[in-house]
């Protein structure tokens, strides 16, 4: 048995008698990547069985259950003790209110919080809040808190050091890009703010769903969106606000954007 990352999709990697492939976090792999691993069995005369797992089904997967050779099993109950995520969509005109909420959660309640951004640096092409600028802003607005920053351009050792500080309680607030959805397990963190969720769509749920796995006391998610919103963006946020069920979100995403 071999456990690996995207590296085992490489063309030069060969298997002897590959019979079973288990793909976790399906939404993080492209169609051709999953197909490449399945085709590793061609030289042995048969294709391996595939077990694909995900907490955030993509529309194409739902379509394959109807039109392709894909059977599904659904685990739709929450683990014992876990409560649903409380999701609230808030316009960026109330940004100061959100900052006050973070201060209260960290200083009064003794909890920790995430602040998730869609960009690393500010962009002239996209009207979205950048992680580095947000980090600088929050350090000034919340001088009583220790605020950390983590994003995909950092070296692995740097990211690990920041995450370790957050897990150990040395940081009150962690500003991050969506890289935060990998390896999040901090039981004391009970609040997450996601900037520009209208750009992420149903993908905004992913980091929150992972963060709340280790918190059983009621995880709060705040979707901080820029105004005005397009009709499509309003529908996306409505879905995220009204449901904690990844399957319901995927079905509505399939209805709105088709299989892709």
TrEMBL record:
Enzyme class, first EC level, given as a word: isomerase
Could you state a single Gene Ontology molecular function term?
Answer: 3'-5' DNA helicase activity
Record domain Helicase C-terminal: where: 109-255
Q: Spell out the reaction equation it catalyses.
A: Couples ATP hydrolysis with the unwinding of duplex DNA by translocating in the 3'-5' direction; ATP + H2O = ADP + phosphate + H(+)
InterPro entries from the UniProt entry? Helicase_ATP-bd, Helicase_C-like, P-loop_NTPase, RecG/Mfd
Give the domain of life.
Answer: Bacteria
Asked whether the keyword Cell membrane is assigned, the reply is no
Could you tell me which residue ranges the Helicase ATP-binding domain spans? Answer: 1-75
User: Biological process GO terms, please?
Assistant: DNA recombination; DNA repair
What's the protein called, per UniProt?
ATP-dependent DNA helicase RecG
Q: Which organism is it from?
A: Escherichia coli
